[in-house]
Amino acid sequence: MKLSATNLHALGNVGVPDYDRTAVTPGIVHFGVGGFHRAHQAMYLDRLMSEGKALDWGIVGVGVLPNDQRMAEVMAAQDCLYTLVVKHPDGTLEPRVVGSIVDYLFAPDDPSAVLDRLADPATRIVSLTITEGGYHVNQVTGELDASDPALAADLEPGATPGSVFGFIVEALRRRREAGVPPFTVMSCDNIPGNGHVARKMIAGFARLKDPEIAEFLENDVRFPNCMVDRITPVTTDADRAALAERFGVEDGWPVVCEPFTQWVLEDDFGGMRPPYEDVGVQIVEDVEPYELMKLRLLNASHQALAYLGFLAGYRYAHEVCQDKLFVDFLLGYMDNEGTPTLPPVPGVDLDRYKHQLIERFANPEVRDTLARLCAESSDRIPKWLLPVVREQLAAGREIARSVLVVASWARYAEGVDEQGRPIEVVDRLRDKLVERAQHNREDPLVFISDPDLFGDLGSDERFVAPYKAALRSLHEIGARATLEAL
């Protein structure tokens, strides 16, 4: 049965919204409606609504990129409903239809509709999952990189917004002129200090566009930090088929995820917010210890298993984490390199957390692809792993495993695996990375000599020497034998 509002109560053994969706009104505009947002923030709001709460906090999704057209089509066809399927390690599937998204706007088709929604006083939160690259941060200077064509177009006088930053700044200008309080901007991306970064980058854009709005934004708009965690692999045709065959639901874009979920949120909102704490969200004064724990243990470990695992012939995260050699390597990285850089994390047993990560990665039902984990490395490695390297170097501690991960990225970026098969490198800097990596053998420092990605690490002999040795080993004996030697 096709998923739609009219068919909801005809569905069989699938959880469905038990609240009146016609009573739900918009309160949040979300940029970047993908799998992760729908497995996480939208799910928490759906839980609240099931308790009869937060019915004035419905989500209006917004897509600004050309490839968001398909999401717009699916959302329109399904009345903004979708199925969230939790995949348990024993093979059990737990599906639920989520109803907290009430509308979806495809910005290229109707930018004025997006601006109207953003300017509406009912919109009190604008949330973001726009990926690490969506913040346009120069990785070395930490300042805004305004060279992106979408940003450049929005900076033209009188331009109709086309970028996330353009829409936010123009909407804040309109709200200020109309005497409407500003909305809170809530970044939910995997970036250290994501709220701070969002404020700095959007303010940097505003200074170029409208200095008055930049001052207003920096003084009056709140940008809470948060840490979000739930492994959400790309939905496959097999996932759609399983939902149809086992539960009788035809869903154009369901979401699959692991059972684990965590959201740690700084209580820094300009006005009202949903009572997230009622459904398990941790509301705290300082998010940093939790986000560093996730970024340097979970996210960096994903990078640690992804390139080496792919080069060794694996294609899924669970395959890698059922191999003791790789598990020992991951735990060695977490214990000896990641953990020493962390501050105390209130209420968390780090040893238990690290072993729980291995269990989560090893869930065979999630089938998280290494290709997904290897994508957009130029946005991930500098934020998740290189800070560990720098802190370890500053303290005179070991970096061997982190260095091997960087070398495995360089080897992966050559675009050919150890069996001579092509690797599809997915990265916004793909052409530059592959061009450099293909000269790794004759110039082993070529890959790490890019100051925009590596800063001064490419000239620090404490990093350079083990990096050259690791890269040489990957070329000469391969990933598995390199790990065994380590």
Automatic annotation (TrEMBL):
Asked whether the UniProt record includes Cell membrane among its keywords, one would answer: no
In terms of SUPFAM superfamilies, this protein maps to:
6-phosphogluconate dehydrogenase C-terminal domain-like, NAD(P)-binding Rossmann-fold domains
Q: Which GO terms describe its biological process?
A: mannitol metabolic process
All residue ranges annotated as the Mannitol dehydrogenase N-terminal domain in the record: 27-275
Q: Where is the Mannitol dehydrogenase C-terminal domain?
A: 286-474
Q: Which UniProt keywords apply?
A: NAD, Oxidoreductase
Enumerate the InterPro entries for this protein: 6-PGluconate_DH-like_C_sf (IPR008927), 6PGD_dom2 (IPR013328), Mannitol_DH (IPR000669), Mannitol_DH/Oxidoreductase (IPR050988), Mannitol_DH_C (IPR013118), Mannitol_DH_CS (IPR023027), Mannitol_DH_N (IPR013131), NAD(P)-bd_dom_sf (IPR036291)
Describe the reaction catalysed, as an equation: D-mannitol 1-phosphate + NAD(+) = beta-D-fructose 6-phosphate + NADH + H(+)
Q: Which domain of life is it from?
A: Bacteria
As recorded in UniProt, its EC number(s) are: 1.1.1.17
One Gene Ontology term of the molecular function aspect: mannitol-1-phosphate 5-dehydrogenase activity
Pfam families in the cross-refs: Mannitol_dh, Mannitol_dh_C
Q: Into which family does the record put it?
A: Belongs to the mannitol dehydrogenase family. UxuB subfamily.
Q: What is this protein called?
A: Mannitol-1-phosphate 5-dehydrogenase
